[in-house]
Amino acid sequence: MDITIHASFLPHDDPDASLAFYRDTLGFEVRNDVGYEGMRWITVGPSGQPGTSIVLYPPAADPGVTEDERRTITEMMAKGTYASLVLATHDLDGTFERVQAGSAEVVQEPAEQPYGVRDCAVRDPAGNLLRIQQLS
């Protein structure tokens, strides 16, 4: 079977702040930026990996989500417990310095983890948890 990860979705509550973080702080390419009825979907991805994208989306756009569920999603986003993503880099310390200098909330500085990786953790402007691992 030939299957790849094409896109992952992360919610945002401020499209401009999310765009600045993923584009300017992480250096991702902007692949699409679509507005509809006052909402924006922004597709970004690492340069050199055109087949892998992150879609930053407004969680309120799903018509199947109730008002109570929207409130819960908003509360979970504010606490940073709604969505997460693991990224990887060959230069964890340099990447951490760049992210720390940007708009990310630092959750954990680079450290050796008991599960065998060296990584750090930050939150993007929407509260999504991003773990960044050191590649060998």
TrEMBL record:
Q: Which SUPFAM superfamilies match?
A: Glyoxalase/Bleomycin resistance protein/Dihydroxybiphenyl dioxygenase
What PROSITE patterns does the record tag this protein with? VOC (PS51819)
Pfam family for this entry, one = Glyoxalase
Q: Classify the source by domain of life.
A: Bacteria
Q: Extract the Gene3D superfamilies matched here.
A: 2,3-Dihydroxybiphenyl 1,2-Dioxygenase, domain 1 (3.10.180.10)
Where in this chain does the record put each VOC domain? Answer: 4-135
Coiled coil (residue ranges)? none
Q: What is this protein identified as?
A: Glyoxalase/bleomycin resistance protein
Question: What is the species of this protein?
Answer: Streptomyces daqingensis
